[in-house]
Amino acid sequence: MHPQQYGDFYAELNNGIRMPLLGLGVYDMYGLEAETAIHHALEIGYRLIDTATMYGNEVEVGNAIRQFSVSRNELFVTTKVNDVDQGYDQTLRAFEASQRMLNCGHIDLYLIHWPIKNKRLDTWRALERLYTDGLVRAIGVANYMIPFLDELLPITAIQPVVNQVEFSPYLFLQDLLARCQKEKIVLQAYTPLVRGERFNDLKLQGLAQKYGKTPAQIILRWALQLGISTIPKSINPKRLKENFDVFDFSISDEDMAFMATFNEGYRVVPDPMSIF
C-alpha cells in the first residue's frame, strides 16, 4: 500500500496544513516492539504517528522514523505534554525534551494531553508561544469536552486545530462533534475500535458481512466518512494492514445513519468530566 491510497482522506487544519485522517496510535508500545510496529505501519502506508510523553516511547518513535526511507515532510508526528509537566514554563521545557527524545526534525502537532485544573490555561499559553515562535507546525488539545472548550476558546490568540478524545460508534458524542466542526477543530478519535470489546455486536457484524469487511474496518471507515481523524493502535502486522485497508469501499448514507444509533455511552477510558 502507498500513501496515495489516502486519496481525499486528509484534513486541512484551520491553520492551512494538511493532516492524514487515519494514523497509528502508539499507546502502550515499548522498546523494539514499538519500533517494529511503527516500521510495519510506515511500510503499509501510514503517515500519521501519534505518541505522547506519557507513553514513554518518543525515543522509539523517532528511531523508527529516522530508519525509514521516506521524506520527513511526508510524515505527520504528534506528541503531547504530560500532565505533570503542565504550566507555562514547565510546558516549554517539556516540549524541548520531546524534541530531543523524538530527534526527527520538527514536531507537527503538540497537544495538551488532559485538561489539568489550574494549569490548562497557562499550558495553552505556552503552546501558543511555541507555535508563534515557529517551533511546532500546529497546536491542539485532547480530552476536551464542551465545558473545557467553552473555557478555552474565548481567551485563545490561536485556535486549536485538533481535539483528540475517546470516540466511537458506541460513544458517539454528537454535540462535541458538532461543536468542533463549528469551530473548525478536527475531532480525532482515540480507542476508536473500543479495544475490540464491541466487535461481537450483531448490528456491527451484520454491516461487516454486508460490505465484506471486518468490524474494525467498518468502524474506521465510518469515522473517515464523518471527517473524523482516527488513530487505532496495533502491534500486529496483520491488524495494521487490516486497519489501513479501508479506502476501497464506502458505507451508504442509510448505513451511516444506522450506525449513528449504536451509541451506548460506552467508554474504555475514564470520562474527562469525571476527573477534571
UniProtKB/TrEMBL annotation:
It is an enzyme of class 1 (oxidoreductase). Residues 33-260 form the NADP-dependent oxidoreductase domain. Keywords: NADP, Oxidoreductase. Pfam families: Aldo_ket_red. The keyword Ribonucleoprotein does not apply. One of its GO terms (molecular function) is methylglyoxal reductase (NADPH) activity. Transmembrane segments: none annotated. The record marks 80 as: Lowers pKa of active site Tyr. Belongs to the aldo/keto reductase family. This is Methylglyoxal reductase (NADPH-dependent). The lineage of its organism: Bacteria, Pseudomonadati, Bacteroidota, Saprospiria, Saprospirales.
